[in-house]
Known about the structure:
Layout lengths: L3 H22 L3 H29 L5 H23 L5 H30 L4
Amino acid sequence: MGVKALDDQHASFIAILNELHAAMLKGQAQDITGPMLNKLMDYTREHFATEERLMESTKYPGLADQRVKHREFTGKIEDYVSRFKRGEGGLYLELLKFARDWITEHMQTVDKRYTAWMNERGVH
């Protein structure tokens, strides 16, 4: 994306999903889904806080809209956590699809807009 801190965090997000996918291929997804959801929730909160701090520091004009999108995504992850805790099985496929779609839409489209803004203001 061009902002090292965010690039590193995006790599962590993808690593979490790859770990879940690998477990799924080995037939271990049910065992690892709970810990992966917790890891994903922690990542999400940290990542969005970092993004929003950088947006604030560069006075990004789309910050309010980004906050709304961040809350929506966080809410969806919280919903997956709740569903898993209630014993709903097989969430991993749905979670992987949701995350893949989000990566495509958010990281590859929305994030590129604000990283260009940040780069123009010296944040790399």
